[in-house]
Automatic annotation (TrEMBL):
The chain crosses the membrane at residues 54-75, 82-99, 111-139, 160-180, 186-209. Residues 227-248 have a biased composition (Basic and acidic residues). It comes from the Bacteria. The keyword Cytoplasm does not apply. Keywords: Membrane, Transmembrane, Transmembrane helix. Pfam families: DUF3159. This is DUF3159 domain-containing protein. Residues 227-287 are annotated as: Disordered.
Length: 287
């Protein structure tokens, strides 16, 4: 079946999936965002495994994070994912340096993961699922899904539950390792668990949203309302201008002198019909 033979419903469904994929790619950074997330931690654990040098490992991880941000700035690309990586690495470096414990390099990220998992669950229970707050602006629907699109709200709730439970499961593996395992073991497990849970959560989000009703483009609605208001104003101005023209016409007509059709007086005071030369016919003179 060619693209021309596809039913309209299938085409619309394909378009909705493509829009969802593009929005998820933008929101979560795609392949490049994943590389920026994994690379600093991978470099840290690799160097520490080789020589157990906390300072060298921390400096190398922070340096590569800064390089990633610099590359995005040079390419004039969005830096939100790279900056988030820099902040995470910086906090890890500070914790590790202050406590002189390389294992604490991973602690801020683990606490962030736990807090994010709880945020997904709590916001979903409150009726405002976090994934909807994140993706609403990306889909140009803002918060319209809360009251105007219940099917989409349900999909966001399912996706938020998926994110929350997956991240909680990740924390259930990492925190016991933080207490009982050595730095190298914790680091390699953490690097290993960076991508697979993330991809699973993104895939489930795509599944739920691909089956949900289409988003309501509130930006397009606002633009249409502005255009309608502007057209109404222009129409009102045209009507007022037309009204002024009619009023001016009536007033100018009232100021023109009326034509006098009554018989005029002759030079000698006698009246008579005007002749063809503009004079008055007089009666015969008396001798």
């Amino acid at each position: 079946m060619t693209s021309l033979d596809k039913p309209t419903g299938d085409t619309e469904a394909d378009d909705a999936r493509a829009v969802t994929e593009a929005a998820l790619f933008e929101a979560f950074g795609g392949v490049r965002g994943m590389v920026e997330t994994v690379l600093p931690g991978l470099l840290f654990v690799t160097i520490f495994t080789i020589n157990s040098d906390l300072h060298l490992s921390a400096i190398a991880a922070l340096a590569v994070s800064l390089v990633l941000v610099a590359v995005r700035l040079v390419m004039k690309d969005t830096v939100k994912h790279a900056f988030s990586g820099v902040f995470g690495v910086a906090f890890g470096v500070v914790f590790a340096m202050m406590t002189d414990n390389a294992k604490n390099f991973y602690l801020p990220g683990m606490l962030y993961t736990l807090g994010l998992a709880l945020a997904y669950i709590v916001t979903t229970l409150a009726g405002v699922p976090l994934i909807g707050l994140i993706l609403g602006p990306v889909f140009k629907e803002n918060l319209s899904w809360r009251t105007r699109n219940p099917g989409r709200k349900k999909a966001y709730a399912k996706a938020s539950w998926a994110w929350g439970l997956i991240l909680l499961a990740k924390c259930a593996v990492l925190f016991p390792l933080y207490w009982w395992a050595d730095t190298e073991s914790l680091g390699w497990v953490l690097v290993t668990l960076k991508i697979p849970p993330f991809l699973l959560a993104v895939w489930l989000t795509w599944v739920f949203l691909a089956k949900a009703p289409a988003p309501i483009d509130v930006f397009a609605e606002m633009e249409a309302a502005e255009k309608a208001e502007q057209a109404e104003q222009e129409r009102g101005e045209e009507e007022r201008a037309a009204g002024r023209d009619r009023t001016d016409g009536v007033l100018s007509g009232a100021r023109e002198p009326a034509v006098d059709d009554t018989p005029g007086l002759a030079a000698d005071g006698e009246t008579g019909p005007a002749d063809s030369r503009g004079g008055r016919h007089r009666g015969p003179r008396k001798g």
